Amino acid sequence: MWRKESPKAPVFMQPAIFISAFVILGALFALQEWVSFREWGVHVVPGIVFSSWTVEFLIWGCICWILWRLLGSWIQTAKILPLIAWIVPLSIMTGIAEEAFFVFLFPHLPITERPRGYLRRLTLSLDAELFNNMVIFWCAVLLFRGIGYYERYHEKEQAAAQLEIQLANAKIAAFRMQLNPHFLFNAMNSISSLMRVDIEAADSMLEQLSCLMRMTLERGDAQLITLHDEMEFIETYLAMQAERYAGRVTQAVIIDPELHDALVPVMLLQPLVENAFVHGLSKIQAHGELSVAVRRRGEAMELSIVNSGVGLSSRNVPTTTGNHGIGLANVRSRLLLHYGERASLSITELDDKKVQVLIWMPLYLPPYPPDAITKCVTK
């Protein structure tokens, strides 16, 4: 039954704090008794009242703290019936022992009685104080029991929060696994379309694709990367598309310089840029426009992708909440997992020839510059 290992202790169970609290409580009882004596017209030396009460509660503080050290773990986990069966006799014996020690220390108490022998004074004290001593003992036991309940509840909360984080990470990882083959399929399809008309451009695209895949491998399982690293990926991807569209699309990238170290979800922009080409720019033969802009808006970031081509009405896509293909649905789901309601993604038709995808998300700048992803150099 006796478990000698020390239980997990909150701050207030440190011996200095715990025992001091008992002494302060004793001083408050002493003050109350001294004021009562004054009201009754009984002259009592304050030192006797305060010393007796504070010493008695000092003794109880030491007893209860030793009880915590020796039996705290068992009290926290024992079943009710065994707990009562052991604690009731223990509380009686402890109450008697404490009172015997106290009577020995203060032979002139009680002050309202004439001097008597030790056993007589002990008998009087036990008649008056034994029940109170048992109440103090049981209050300590209930406190220790309550600490055990709180600790278990707190551990369950932490375990539930950890499971929730693990589930969210698993979902994000699943979405990333969904993106990689989708991106690779579209890239290989683009290269295949160039093989018979421009072998040199197809070769250059293969080299750029290998660079993108190397970046993806370097990132490993990272969920958040710097905007600088994300834009390095985007710029390489745009260079691939420039080979394919051969002057049909004018590209512009605008980034606030202070945002280069801001953290963003990995592969946040690539699916959106890919959608701009697949569902907009690929539908026109010349004078296509694509702009990618990232700006600071107070404590948030605004990420904008505007492309020309066909409008939303031609694509049958709702202007604010609809998903278009894997890319938008994937990005929207990952934003929700990372930021909840603090982030948003919307699609707007600026005119019948231009579409804007707009992301709002919290701005987070790390306290130190993260390690950069290995750069790729292509011909």
Describe the structure.
The protein folds into two domains: 11-161, no CATH class; 195-362, Heat Shock Protein 90 (2-Layer Sandwich), CATH 3.30.565.10. The protein is 61% helix and 13% strand. It contains nine helices and seven strands; from the N terminus they run αααααβαββαββααββ. The strands form two sheets. Strands 2-4-5-7-6 form a five-stranded mixed beta sheet, covered by helices on one side. The protein has a two-stranded antiparallel sheet with strand order 1-3. α2 (46-77) packs antiparallel against α3 and α5 (199-219) packs antiparallel against α6. The model is unreliable at 1-5 and 317-324 (pLDDT under 50).
And the CATH topology of the largest domain? Answer: Heat Shock Protein 90
CATH 2nd-level architecture of the largest domain: 2-Layer Sandwich
Order of the strands making up the biggest sheet: 2-4-5-7-6
Please outline the major beta sheet. 5 strands, mixed
CATH superfamily of the largest domain: Histidine kinase-like ATPase, C-terminal domain
Number of domains: 2
pLDDT < 50 runs, ≥5 residues: 1-5, 317-324
User: Which CATH class of the largest domain?
Assistant: Alpha Beta
Fraction of residues in H or I helices: 55-70%
| Gap between N and C termini | 75 Å
Order of helices and strands: HHHHHEHEEHEEHHEE
User: Number of DSSP helices?
Assistant: 9
